[in-house]
Inverse folding.
């Protein structure tokens, strides 16, 4: 199975390097996508996440990736990581109101919690709806690094707790997955998650 | 002085060592109690390959068998060790890292009984005083010779105005005190923290463990003695001082030295001297602290911290030789492998020759001169072959960062 | 809330060094070797700071950073000599997850914090504070803990939070490398003055030091260096000990 994982490169933000490394470690082949034409040649898609909602969406539009990406996600298994998961939402509220990819009925809002923000560190996940991506990972810890959270009531795959506040830590809708945490920064557990993704 | 040499008999063309950041304008140690105005200096020697003596010595150091030297130190200590409750070694210093390490290893590693002696800085810095206390906190007693302040100030001022060398009275006393106390306390063994020759003085000086007696003893008559550029005779006849006042600055009578059996050794012969290692030793074994901030004129925080006059000293070396604290410090660190030559050059470019803003007022007050008098006086000592005035500002003609390689 | 245990690498490329009071360049190993070693010991993160880039006024050495990043599957914070948005971008592209800055922001242009936070997100911007204690206040130092800035640490901490920094790394010039314990008072003060996470460093010498710091000041993370480099403690030992004291840490 020599599937190609398309890693979307949007502008100057986006930790391509770490995700690429982790996917390789999991046994995958990565192709970095900067232009829409390249989307055709990949089997699966990974949407990385460093940056702000506003800038990420702006980049996708100015790089002319927005439409093709939405189309590609309909047919190819996709994993959004952190901001990559957040932009799947309808609306984001980081630096003003921005429209997202609108693939998940959700809004991205600041985390309001009686604890340090950004949420930074290892945390657990509570599987609400079992899925192949998180198979065998129920008891693992994953690294979180975010100030915003996805607020939705559908398509929730896992929930996590932080400072007494519960938030969505993973979503799943058909072949679309999103994780708020960073599997590429979560040691062996993260590599296993990528392996699961490769095996989808 | 012939046309082949600049002021102080310095070579006209500035040449930099190929390995470190030092240059050929650097003078070697002078026999201070004879220093007069207008003297020609012996400068740092460079080999045919453009490498300076100090670097060559550093190379040699790598081939020395330090285990053997350690044994030699053990034997030396065995020879002088006393088990009857008396001190058996004099360790001079002021609480700087070198004297801290020397005292500590002699007492705790070589099982000696050191007594510390101090020729105090004219103007102790805050950090200097704290480190002096920490030195004693580590478990040592100390004799400090507090100078005749009236005379010491006078000499500092004279040395500055006549020689552009305000540090001279300090150096003089420092070199003399240890042998003097060795005689006084009847403790023949004196061990200094480092080795002057490290800095590029006559390399032969490094081959022996002992300091050449010419630096601290002489059969000298008062007519030969010159202090601060002022003949001793004038100090007595014209300036109202007495012979007894000058005691501390007189080199020790060699007869006394011989009677006591005084031997002045330097630790740098027995223990490989790497200033940063000494710093680490000091902070790991005592409460020694580095400076509270970067030392003006340099980049470091761990050397020559205790005397405010030191800050002026490096300013005068900058004016006279174009060599400031950052150059001295970086050359040492390059030789020891702490930094590269290029890194040294970047540091020199950034910090060398920095005006000693921090303590200039204190030092001028001490010398009873105004800031303007300081600036006027120092211009007398500027070496024309090294400096250019561009848009009203003095700039070095050949700084290291403009060197063509 | 799990307290992160972080390995700090002070780097003078190509070596990891361990200064005391931000002075001294004793070599401890290579960044690649040590990053890998501490990752395998269970570090939650690795922080890599080029401690001489600002002092020597030179460019960031990217190669060394990239090689180190390749060893890690945990967050990698990188700093030292960062002066522009472009520096941030380049660092992310070679594997940094967070970028750490100090000298440039304090001495020249604090706006960079705002710019970087906006482009890369707050969580990716870490401000390193090198605090020097005076009688009645703490001053921000730069250029490897040796150049004064006149800025008050407490005020600066609040300012950087406002500007968008996502995390503070708090180091103390007076205790760093001495292995005699942390400045718990300052740590508590800073942790309580901002809403963003604070990672405290400088002073770990024994297990009790780390416990005392966490219990008293409640930092989001503790960064250690000397105890690791000198093989006095391993991260695993630290975590096990903290667990027995009832302090939550990651696996």
């Amino acid at each position: 199975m020599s599937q190609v994982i398309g890693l979307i490169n949007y502008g100057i933000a986006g930790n391509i390097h770490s995700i690429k490394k982790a996917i390789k470690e999991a046994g995958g082949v990565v192709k970095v996508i900067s232009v829409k034409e390249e989307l055709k040649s990949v089997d699966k898609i990974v949407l990385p996440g460093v940056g702000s909602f506003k800038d990420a969406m702006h980049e996708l539009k100015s790089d002319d990736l927005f439409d093709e990406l939405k189309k590609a996600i309909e047919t190819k298994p996709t994993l959004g990581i952190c901001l990559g998961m957040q932009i799947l939402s309808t609306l984001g509220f980081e630096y003003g109101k921005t429209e997202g990819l609108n693939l998940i009925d959700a809004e991205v809002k600041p985390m309001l919690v009686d604890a340090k923000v950004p949420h930074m560190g290892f945390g657990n996940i509570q599987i609400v709806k079992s899925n192949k991506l998180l198979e065998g990972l129920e008891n693992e810890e994953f690294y979180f690094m975010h100030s915003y959270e996805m607020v939705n009531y559908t398509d929730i795959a896992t929930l996590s707790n932080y400072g007494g506040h519960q938030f969505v830590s993973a979503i799943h809708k058909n072949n679309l997955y999103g994780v708020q945490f960073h599997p590429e920064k979560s040691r062996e557990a993260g590599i296993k998650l990528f392996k699961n993704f490769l095996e989808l | 002085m012939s046309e082949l040499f600049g002021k102080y008999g310095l070579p006209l063309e500035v040449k930099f060592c190929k390995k470190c950041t030092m240059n050929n304008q650097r003078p070697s140690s002078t026999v201070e109690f004879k220093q007069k105005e207008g003297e020609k200096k012996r400068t740092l020697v460079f080999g045919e390959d453009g490498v300076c003596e100090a670097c060559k010595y550093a190379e040699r150091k790598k081939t020395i068998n330090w285990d053997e030297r350690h044994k030699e130190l053990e034997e030396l200590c065995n020879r002088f060790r006393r088990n009857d409750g008396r001190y058996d070694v004099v360790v001079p210093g002021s609480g700087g890292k070198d004297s801290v390490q020397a005292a500590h290893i002699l007492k705790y590693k070589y099982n000696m009984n050191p007594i510390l002696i101090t020729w105090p800085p004219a103007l102790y810095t805050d950090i200097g005083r704290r480190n002096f206390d920490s030195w004693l906190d580590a478990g040592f007693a100390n004799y400090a010779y507090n100078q005749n302040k009236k005379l010491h100030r006078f000499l500092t001022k004279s040395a500055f105005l006549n020689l552009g060398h305000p540090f001279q009275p300090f150096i003089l006393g420092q070199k003399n005190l240890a042998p003097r106390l060795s005689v006084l306390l009847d403790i023949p063994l004196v061990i200094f923290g480092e080795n002057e020759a490290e800095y590029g003085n006559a390399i032969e000086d490094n081959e022996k463990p002992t300091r050449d007696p010419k630096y601290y003893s002489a059969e000298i008559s008062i007519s030969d003695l010159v202090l601060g550029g002022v003949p001793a005779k004038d100090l007595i006849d014209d300036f109202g001082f007495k012979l007894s006042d000058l005691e501390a600055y007189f080199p020790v009578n060699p007869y006394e030295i011989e009677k006591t059996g005084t031997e002045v050794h330097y630790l740098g012969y027995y223990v490989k001297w790497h200033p940063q290692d000494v710093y680490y030793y000091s902070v790991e074994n005592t409460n020694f602290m580095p400076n509270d901030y970067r030392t003006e004129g340099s980049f470091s925080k761990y050397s020559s911290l205790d005397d405010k006059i030191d800050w002026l000293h490096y300013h005068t070396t900058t004016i006279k030789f174009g060599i400031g604290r950052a150059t001295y410090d970086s050359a040492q660190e390059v030789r020891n492998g702490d930094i590269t030559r290029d890194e040294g050059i970047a540091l020199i470019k950034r910090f060398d020759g920095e005006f000693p803003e921090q303590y200039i007022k204190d030092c001028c007050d001490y010398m009873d001169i105004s800031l303007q008098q300081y600036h006027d006086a120092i211009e007398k000592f500027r070496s024309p072959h090294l400096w250019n005035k561009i848009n009203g500002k003095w700039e070095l003609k050949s700084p290291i960062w403009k060197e063509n390689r | 809330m799990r307290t992160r245990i972080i390995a700090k690498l002070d780097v003078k490329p190509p070596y990891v060094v361990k200064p005391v009071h931000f002075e001294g360049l004793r070599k401890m190993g290579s960044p690649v070797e040590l990053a890998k070693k501490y990752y395998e010991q269970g570090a939650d993160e690795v922080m890599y700071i080029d401690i001489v880039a600002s002092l020597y006024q030179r460019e960031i050495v990217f190669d060394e950073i990239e090689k180190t990043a390749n060893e890690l599957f945990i967050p990698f914070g990188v700093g030292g000599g960062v002066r522009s948005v472009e520096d941030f971008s380049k660092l992310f592209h070679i594997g940094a997850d967070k970028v750490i800055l100090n000298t440039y922001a304090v001495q020249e242009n604090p706006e960079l914090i705002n710019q970087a936070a906006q482009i890369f997100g707050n969580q990716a911007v870490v401000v390193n504070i090198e605090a020097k204690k005076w009688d009645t206040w703490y001053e921000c130092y730069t250029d490897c803990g040796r150049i004064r800035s006149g800025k008050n640490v407490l005020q600066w901490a609040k300012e950087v939070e406002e500007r968008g920094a996502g995390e503070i790394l708090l180091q103390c010039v007076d205790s760093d490398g001495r292995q005699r314990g942390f400045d718990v008072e300052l740590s508590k003060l800073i942790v309580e003055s901002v809403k963003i996470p604070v990672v405290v460093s400088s002073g770990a010498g024994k297990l009790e030091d780390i416990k005392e710091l966490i219990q008293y000041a409640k930092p989001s993370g503790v960064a250690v260096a000397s105890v690791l480099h000198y093989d006095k403690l391993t991260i695993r030992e630290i975590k096990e000990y903290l667990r027995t004291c009832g302090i939550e840490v990651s696996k």
